[in-house]
Amino acid sequence: xxxxxxxxxxxxxxxxxxxDPNRVEISRVLCPPxxxxxxxxxxQLLARxxxxxxxxxxxxxxxxxxxxxxxxxxxxxxxxxxxEGIFTRDDSAFYVYEQEFLHPQTGQFLRRRxxxxxxxxxxxxxxxxxxxxxLSGPKIDRLKMLRALRANTSPIFGxxxxxxxxxxxxxxxxxxxxxxxxxxxxxGITHRLWVVTDDExxxxxxxxxxxxxxxxADGHHRYETALQFWRENGEKPDASSSVMMFCASSQDSGLVxxxxxxxxxxxxxxxxxxxxxxxxxxxxxxxLESLPELDxxxxxxxxxxxxxxxxxxxxxxxxxxxALDVEILHREILENExxxxxxxxxxxxxxxxxxxxxxxxxxxxxxxxxxxxxxxxTPVSQIQNAASAGRKMPQKSTYFYPKLITGMVLRHLD
Length: 414
Hints:
Elements: E1 11-12, E2 16-19, H1 26-29, H2 41-48, H3 54-57, H4 68-84, E3 87-89, E4 94-102, E5 109-120, E6 128-129, H5 136-149, E7 151-152, E8 156-160, H6 166-174, E9 181-184, E10 190-196, H7 199-209, E11 214-218, H8 220-232, E12 242-249, E13 256-259, E14 261-264, H9 269-273, H10 275-279, E15 283-288, E16 303-307, E17 310-316, H11 325-335, H12 342-346, E18 351-354, H13 357-366, E19 371-374, H14 380-388, E20 398-401, E21 410-412
Parallel strand pairs: 6-11, 8-12
Antiparallel strand pairs: 1-5, 2-3, 2-21, 4-5, 4-10, 5-12, 7-21, 8-11, 9-10, 13-20, 14-18, 14-19, 15-17, 16-17, 16-19
C-alpha cells in the first residue's frame, strides 16, 4: 500500500510499443477506440489486414460478452506479434500526436495536437478531474482486457489548462520536423506521430506538466479500470501505477466538443406522448416543422425534443446560470418526468446515445425509439469549471471530436 500520497500526478515518458512500418501498412492496421467499433466493423477491419489492432483491442463484438478464452486470445496475439517482429519497442520517449481533420458541422480545417505519456494514477480530485459519470458494462470489459494483456492499448484523453502556454509552445516546436509516422483513416482524418527522445525536450515536457491538473476528456472507464487494476496489484510503485494518456493543452485551437444526443426507449407510451403538455409548466415549448435549431450563444438552456408527432424546442422558464443543458435534461425531464434516474443510466437502460441528430430523428420516426432529446455542445471551459467544482456531468455528456486512433502506440506494463 502507498505510504505517502503524491500531491499531483506526474506525466512521464515511457517505452512505447509500435507497429514496424516495414512489416505492415500503418493505415490498414489502426482502428477506432473499442467503444465506437459497432456491428460488423470488427470483422471488416480484420478483413482489411489480419494484423489490424482490433484483434487485440476488442475481444468480441462491442456489446457482446467476451469469454475468458477470448481475452486470452487477444493476449496471445499481442505476444506472438511482438515475437514475430510485427511490433517493436522504443527507448523511453514522449510522443507528440497530431490529428488533422474537418469539423463535421462547420467544415473548418483543424489540427489537434497533444503529448502521449504515462500519467501516474491518483484518485479523482487529486490533480485528475473527471467530468462525467460512467457505465458499468464497459469497465468490466476493460478490466478483463487489462488483466489479460497487461498493457495500455488505447490512450486516455486528457486536457491540461496550460495557463502559461508552455506545453502548447513545446508541442509547436516539435511538429516543425517531419513526423515518424503518418496515416490516414476511413473518415479522412490524418494522424501523425513524433517520437521525442532528446533529453532537453523530454525534460522540458516533464517540467511543463508539473503541477498541472488534468481534466479527463474521454476515457473515464479506462482510467477507473487502471485504478482498479493498480489496487489489485497492491498499489505498488511499478508500471501499473500509471496509465497511458494523450494530453492536449486547453490552448489548442483544435479542441472540438460535439453534443451527444439522447434517444429514449422502453418507457410508457402515454407518458411520452404527454411530454409537450407536461413540460409546458417549466419550459417554453415551441413546436417546429423541422429539426430544432439550437442557439449555441443563447444564455438559457435549449433542448430539442423529437416525438413521432413532431419536433419541439424546449427553453427553461427559470434561469440557472450554472446548470448545464445536459444537467437540466437529466434532472428535470429524464428523472422527474420519465423516471430514468442515475441507477437506470449507469446500467445502460432506456437511453441510447448518438452524435448525429438525423440519426436520432430516424430512430423516432421509424418507431425504433419513442423520443429523442437534442443538446448543444458544452464548451471546454464549462466542462473544466464543472469538474473543478466537483460536479460530474451525466454519462456520455460530451464527445471530443475526433476520437483518438488506436494502435499508434501501446504501453506494456511488464
